Amino acid sequence: MRIAIIGLGMASAPHAQSLIDLQGRLDVAGAYSPTAARREAFAETWKLPVTGDLGGLFEDPTIDAVLILTPPNSHLELVERAAEAGKHILLEKPLDISMERATALVEIAEAKGVKLGIVLQHRFRPISLALLQLVSDGRLGEVVGASAKLSNWRPQSYYDQPGRGTRARDGGGVLLTQGIHTLDLLISVAGLPVEAMAYATTTPVHRMETEDLVAGAVRFTNGALGTVSATTCAYPGIPDTIEFIGTKGSARIEGARLVANLQDGSTIELDDGQLGGGAGADPMAFSHAHHRAVIEDFIDAVEQDRQPKVSGREALKVHRLIEALLRSAETGRREAV
Question: What is the pTM of this model?
């Protein structure tokens, strides 16, 4: 597979390292940024070819796929151009800045028959897969509670970057930019809630347009309840947590560790190792291993003519949940997901 990279900002590092690891399976045709300084820094660091000609990448018939790492408000137009050119697409989260644009983006890729994968790498963690297996096998019994908590820290300097934390560029705050990973993992195991209630605010910790603290509650199809907590105000950054409570036991992911305690007396413990989570001031302080797994799955999906594990259609689910939480915070009412 020949792949092109579009966008060389902060998110490019784990992808670049992953692409280098996978050079036996793919070839990087070019990495685009409109900024010469970014192109030069990227080429110096990763020794990969760069270009300032975006149109040339779309027009090159030898390029099979594009990896889009640009700000969220640019995603719809770039996906449209890639799909028109018949190129498969691996897209950094979120899909776009609104539900309408996100849905349009997915429908365009489907109409053109190209694969669309979304970078929601937490699903590929060994502890995530183990939790899914526990629940799927019924070892926790009937799930009665499923909750997620994200307690990140971002200093004001993070939001001082142009466009960061604005509706125009990012589409939202902590939920769409950081919490999307934890919420996506939650619903990949528990299913999509049917109802949500929430409060959302911008605290005195930050000067920014969108929310940096959210507290909510959700109800699932089977009647199970859960809580959702997300913030970028929790100095110095605390590992995220997902908790499942069932009629036969409970399971909890905290950071890189999974612990399940079952009523039959057995205990299951699994640790991903020192992979980091990006919860603190450096949002990129984590291993690239799970990004590599996302890219490997994307390659497999193209070669096997199947959908990526996190397709565009699948990623719309977490967008629906985030939209319902923020809508509830505005209306003060329970909202359907």
Answer: 0.95
Instruction: Please state, in angstroms and rounded to a whole number, the distance separating the CA atoms of residues 258 and 132.
Output: 11
**CB contact at 8 A, 152 and 234:** yes
The DSSP H or E segment spanning 258 is strand 257-262
310 half-sphere exposure, CB direction, 13 A CA radius: 29
Q: Which residues contact 160 (CB under 8 A, 6 or more apart)?
A: none
**185, containing H or E segment:** helix 180-190
Sign of CA dihedral 181, 184, 189, 194: positive
Angle at alpha carbon of residue 5, lines to 306 and 164, rounded to 5°: 105
Summarised one tens digit per residue, pLDDT across range 177-233 is: 999 999 999 999 999 999 999 999 999 999 999 999 999 999 999 999 999 999 999
CA–CA distance, 326 with 294 (Å, rounded to integer): 28
Extract the tokens encoding 231: 């913030």
Give whole-number Cα distances, 65 to 6, 48, 291, in Å.
11, 16, 16
Enter the tokens of residue 90. 């691996």
Q: Do residues 118 and 105 make contact, with C-beta atoms less than 8 angstroms apart?
A: no
Q: Is the peptide bond between 236 and the residue preceding it cis, with omega within 30 degrees of 0?
A: yes
b/e string for 42-67 if b means 16 or more Cβ within 10 A? beeebebebbeebeebbebeebbbbb
Other CB atoms within a 10 A radius of the CB of residue 120 amount to 23
The residue among 245, 252, 160 whose CA lies nearest residue 208 is 160
Structure token digits, residue 100: 């309408």
pLDDT in tens, 127-170: 999 999 999 999 999 999 999 999 999 999 999 999 999 999 99
Amino acid identity, residue 265?
G
Q: What are phi and psi of 117, to 5 degrees?
A: -110, 145
**Nearest-angstrom CA–CA distance, 292 and 142:** 34
Coil/strand/helix, residue 242? strand
- Given the structure tokens 């589409």, which residue do they identify? 171
In order of 30, 35, 96, the CA distances from 101 in angstroms are: 27, 26, 6
CA 192-165-156 angle, to 5 degrees, is 125
